[in-house]
Structures are given as structure tokens and as C-alpha cells.
Amino acid sequence: MKRPNRLSRSRDFDAVYRHGRSASTRFLVLYWFPQEEPGEPRFGFSVPRTVGDSVARNKIKRQLREVWRARLESVPPGKDYVLIVRPGLPEAIESNGFDWLGERVDEVLGKATA
Fold it and tell me: Which of 14, 25, 101, 107 is most open to solvent, judged by the fewest CB atoms within 10 Å of its CB?
């Protein structure tokens, strides 16, 4: 993902967590919050230690960045998003495949935009 589409500062993450809305599924939680100055959508990912070791967490982040990059055109602009991974996702991706992960992201994004 390009830099303008990333959330990187801690205060941006905090604003989305504290003031944003959320939608959840079995493996993912999506928070979103309107930007102060509407622009391109920005994304941040949170993969807690309960999900796995650092190798597993970084692999999931790489996979999620790839999924979001493919969906960037269809995501409504003017919002910041934070996607939180729940435990069990690495095993589910391993058994169901990368396309399954895209379906799960579409599912949580559909709940957010509805």
C-alpha cells in the first residue's frame, strides 16, 4: 500500500479506537472514523501477540495489506480504518486459502458500509 493510504501514528490509531464505530466478524474487527480533512482512505492493522509469534503476525499483516490494496478503489474515501485480527485467523487462512481471507475482509467491510 502507498504511504498516503497508511495509518502510522499512534494518535491516529487512538482517534479511530476511541471515537470511531466498529463492526466485527469471527476473525476480524474493523473500526472506522471520518478524517478531519476528507481524503483518500487510510488503513492500519493491529495483530495482537495472542495471534502468534512475530513471524505469523508479520505474515498476516503482509496478507492484509495485499487484500486492502486490491480493494482500495471500492472503499469509501474520507475515513480512517483500523483492522484488528482475532486469534485463530492464521490457522483459518492456512486451511482455507488467501481468497478466503479476502472474503472475510469483504464481509467486515460490508458491515461497516451498510
Answer: 14
Contact 112, 32 (CB under 8 A): yes
Ramachandran bin of 68, using left for φ above 0, alpha for ψ from -120 to 50, beta for the remaining angles: alpha
Tens of pLDDT, residue by residue over 3-16, are 778 888 888 888 99
Q: Kindly list the domain boundaries of the chain, sorted by start residue.
A: 3-113
Residue with cell 451498510: 114
Hey, what CATH class is 3-113 in?
Answer: alpha beta
Nearest to 29 by CA among 79, 97, 114, 104: 104
Q: Which amino acid is at 10?
A: S
Residue 1: predicted pLDDT: 62
Q: How confident is the model over 21-34, as pLDDT tens digits?
A: 999 999 999 999 99
Q: What is the rounded distance in angstroms from the CA atom of residue 85 to the CA atom of residue 61? A: 9
pTM more than 0.85: yes
